[in-house]
Design a protein that fits this description.
CATH topology of the domain at 180-254: Histidine-containing Protein, Chain: A
Shape: rod-shaped
Mean pLDDT: 75
Strand content: 15-25%
Radius of gyration: 39 Å
Pfam family, one: BON
Order of helices and strands: EEEHEHHEEEHEEHHEEHEE
Number of strands: 13
Protein name: BON domain-containing protein
Oligomer: single chain
């Protein structure tokens, strides 16, 4: 097949093409190229849109975006609700003020979202015993540590997500039914140490040298003395240490003078 003098030769036959048709065929070539170019641009935009959509889905899986599907938990009120001297309730005094405080020098207060979150967790008696670490990535907070139940894990996340300024919470708390055991052991060691320090301040108890052991907040005193009143003094000194639930003195021996 060949084009000669406006004729298309097909074997022995020929097809005549008028001269005015040839320019029109040539004019359609740029239009075809433009259409192909636009088609490639549309395909590229589609691929970029799909990539962005996948990135957003991946981010949503990694971070729990805050929503209002659950109400904010109510922090347990303190045991001793004394009225404020100025007539305001303790609730008004402890409520979070969203305005920035200004010091006497006129400088703005320095605050941190991580510290705010830690204080909020310590204000709840259910979470107070646990050492929960908080990591921040901008306004997204990550909870790290151990609690003893799923409900405590959820409560911690709910408290943090309701704080002003928090965008999202990633809850990495691990549930371990034995998590509180280590905390109790550590607390017992502190109680024992505080009781011994109190005994050291008394010449009488320092001379007797009672042994002190604490398990689950229950203090057991061991030793011997001639005077029962000294046992009472030791028990009362131990009683004043925060966290003590009971004082057992049954293992203290009363001895008689020889």
């Amino acid at each position: 097949m060949a084009l000669i003098d406006g004729r298309i030769l097909l074997g022995a036959e020929s097809l005549e093409i008028k001269p005015e048709v040839v320019p029109k065929l040539k004019e359609t070539e740029p239009t075809i190229h433009e259409s192909e170019h636009k088609l490639k641009e549309l395909e590229q935009e589609t691929e970029e849109s799909e990539a962005k959509s996948k990135d957003m889905e991946s981010h949503q899986k990694e971070v729990e975006i805050i929503g209002d599907e659950r109400p904010c938990p109510q922090v347990n009120p303190p045991a001793d609700n004394k009225p404020a001297a100025n007539g305001q309730s303790s609730t008004d005094q402890t409520s979070t003020d969203k305005t920035k405080f200004v010091e006497a020098e006129g400088k703005e207060s320095i605050h941190s979202l991580i510290i705010t979150a830690k204080l909020a967790l310590m204000a709840d008696s259910r979470l107070f015993p646990y050492d929960i670490e908080i990591d921040a990535k901008g306004k997204d907070l990550v909870l790290l540590g151990k609690v003893t139940s799923d409900s405590e894990k959820q409560t911690a996340a709910d408290i943090i997500r309701c704080l002003d300024g928090v965008h999202a919470v990633k809850n990495r708390l691990k549930v371990n039914p034995n998590a509180s055991h280590g905390l109790v052991v550590e607390r017992d060691k502190i109680i024992t140490q505080l009781i011994k320090e109190r005994f050291e301040k008394s010449e009488t108890l320092q001379a007797v040298k009672f042994e002190v052991k604490t398990e689950g907040g229950v203090v057991t005193l061991t030793g011997s003395t001639r005077f029962q009143v000294i046992i009472l003094e030791a028990a009362q000194a131990a009683r004043q240490v925060p966290g003590v639930k009971a004082v057992n003195t049954s293992t203290v021996r009363l001895i008689t003078a020889e």
